[in-house]
Amino acid sequence: MSARIGPKSNKKPLGTVSYTTRVKKELFGLRNVPADEKKAELLGILACKNAFSEERILLQVENLDVARRVWLTLRELTPLKIGIKYSVSRKLGTHKIFAVQVQRQKGYEAFLTELSDLRNLVKTEEAIRNAFIRGAFLACGYIKDPRREHALDFFIDSEALAWELFALLERIGKKSFLTKKRGKYLLYLRNSEDIKDLLILTGALEEYFSYENVTILKELKNKTVREMNYEVANETKALNTGKKQVEMIRYIREKSGLNNLSGALSDVAFVRLQNPERSLQEIADIIGISKSGVRNRFKRIEEIYQDLQNQNHHRGE
User: Fold this and answer.
1) pLDDT of residue 14 exceeding 70
2) Same domain, 35 and 157
3) Which of 99, 130, 270, 307 maximizes the CB count within 10 A of its CB?
4) Given phi > 0 = left and psi -120 to 50 = alpha, else beta, which region is 217?
């Protein structure tokens, strides 16, 4: 079957658009891209999908937008004959597989050499490198919604390309990890700053600002939650402290009477009994002394409490 390659439909897809789809949509819409960068992006797509051989270039993808991108770019960059078709696969569910193919023909070797020469520039030319990474992302990249977690993954068919991309990211200071999963090589990033940097260098500026806004709001929310938890913890601690101090004072009152306490200790004891839920600072403000002064007085009350407990224990009470 032949696939129709032409203007995209304005009809909105059903369901919620994934964050990956949003980012790729912006990248597909980039305009006025220089020819060398288009070629580098094409190289990134084809290399990630292990599409090169001596006899042909064969790209097989489920994403029609990627197939269209490669087909249009090839048409623009080379006079070689290009074929495109799709088939229906029923492996793990029914889905279409789009295939873009360039058979060996006159000029084929020259085109491969041209792409190979460009590949050497990926390591040295920033614009070429960025376009290559953009192509890799379009071919096999997935990015999680930052509201859920910070994660950007590349599922790469070629082991050599996986290590090449890993080294490339390392060279520009981006921390990534490489493992093998389900027969593919998984290159992944988990640092939000590195992910945002990749959005910028690939050209997804609108989604970068969206990602940044979500990250800021998320950090503010987390900060607010932390502050609330801190306040709740402090209030709980104050309540528990006040409860314990009230119990000690009542015990002292029952066993020996509060009149036997010094004036300073009796003052803080009476204020605490009247204000069991107040913090030490609030008790200090009521009495008119420092918080450390209140704390020292309660330490003395605790010592008296423990002494009375020990005495009563020895008496068998």
Assistant:
1) no
2) yes
3) 130
4) alpha
Q: What distance in Å separates the CA atoms of residue 26 and residue 305, rounded to the nearest whole number?
A: 71
Q: What are the tens digits of pLDDT across the range 32-88?
A: 899 999 999 999 999 999 898 889 999 998 889 999 999 999 999 999 999 989 888
Q: Residues for the chain: how many in total?
A: 317
Indicate the number of domains in the chain: 2
**If you write DSSP's letter for every residue of 115-183 in order, what string do you get?**
HHHHHHHTTT-HHHHHHHHHHHHHHHEEE--TTT---EEEEES-HHHHHHHHHHHHHTT---EEEEETT
pLDDT at 78: 92
User: Looking at the domain assignment, is residue 219 inside a domain?
Assistant: no
All residues at 6 or more sequence positions from 203 whose CB lies less than 8 Å from its CB, including other chains? 26, 27, 30, 130, 134
Burial class (CB in 10 A: 0-12, 13-18, 19+), 112: middle
What is the domain-level CATH number for residue 127? 3.10.28.10
DSSP state of 18: P
